[in-house]
Specification:
Length: 272
């Protein structure tokens, strides 16, 4: 049996199993190895479906965005055949650096902005049988009624370093930045820039763009490779080396440090 056939066999005949990220950040890797490329990250409270198990590495699919990759199974908890009940309401860790959970054994977890609090109720959340005391006021978002201050949420990440596959203040890539800011407003976006570009309503011209519109950029082959959030039709906040604000015009993003255009504008989308 070919390896691809074996993987498909395992998936088809494995009992459906779900889990939740139980650490602050869990890398999603391209392969089941600590040396493999980090393709994305799970944050505390992110739900996954388990697709395949190979020793200590499990191939999972994030239920928030459908992203697939390999995770060390020890970073998952709440495993079982049933997923969390679906709801438009979510409780998230807000912008800030004091998002602390306390476990039953007295140990602490420091959550990153945008992390989900599973089963939140009256100051506690839980994963399986483990209960955590929430030491901060959660951000309640309603995915059926998005709202929030896009500019303030975006500017919170200014100077966060660029990290391929990153989704946090301590390392974030361009599409991860756009995704997490929208999550804080109650808007679900897919993970990669090329996927995000297929969503939303088209804005015909940069001159018609508004605060919060999302600009996408392509390479010489026409592939979408970069994305950022417009603060106006003259400025964009995006992750390139770090999260920063640069001027933009119909040609693209102009980098003052390099004194040249670095990203060619392709399309603009509106998600609100």
């Amino acid at each position: 049996m070919l390896l691809a056939d074996l993987a498909a066999y395992r998936y088809l005949y494995m009992e459906q199993e779900f889990g939740i990220c139980r650490v602050a950040i869990a890398p999603i890797r391209a392969l089941g190895s600590d040396r493999a490329e980090i393709a994305s990250q799970l944050l505390f409270g992110d739900e996954v479906e388990v697709l395949e198990k190979v020793e200590g590495w499990w191939r999972v699919k994030s239920l928030y965005e459908g992203y697939e990759g390999w995770v060390d199974f020890r970073q998952l908890g709440g495993l079982g055949s049933e997923r969390q009940p679906e709801s438009d309401i979510a409780y998230l860790a807000p912008t800030g650096l004091q998002n602390v959970l306390t476990a039953e054994d007295g140990s602490t977890y420091y959550l990153l902005t945008g992390s989900t609090l599973p089963n939140y109720l009256d100051g506690t959340c839980s994963i399986g049988n483990q209960i955590f005391q929430v030491g901060f006021e959660p951000l309640q978002v309603d995915f059926s009624n998005p709202q929030g201050d896009m500019e303030t949420l975006s500017r919170f990440f200014v100077n966060a370093p660029y990290l391929w596959g990153g989704r946090t203040l301590f390392g974030i890539d361009c599409s991860g930045f756009v995704q997490i800011v929208h999550k804080l407003m109650g808007i679900k976006l897919l993970r990669d820039a090329s996927q995000q570009a297929q969503e939303g309503a088209l804005v015909d011209f940069l001159a018609a763009a508004q605060l919060g519109d999302v600009a996408f950029f392509d390479n010489a082959e026409g592939k979408i490779t970069h994305v950022g959030i417009l603060l106006s039709n003259k400025e964009i906040i995006h992750s390139s080396a770090k999260v920063k604000i640069d001027p933009i015009d119909d040609q693209g993003i102009f980098n003052k440090e390099l004194n040249k255009y670095t990203h060619k504008l392709r399309i603009i989308k509106r998600f609100r």
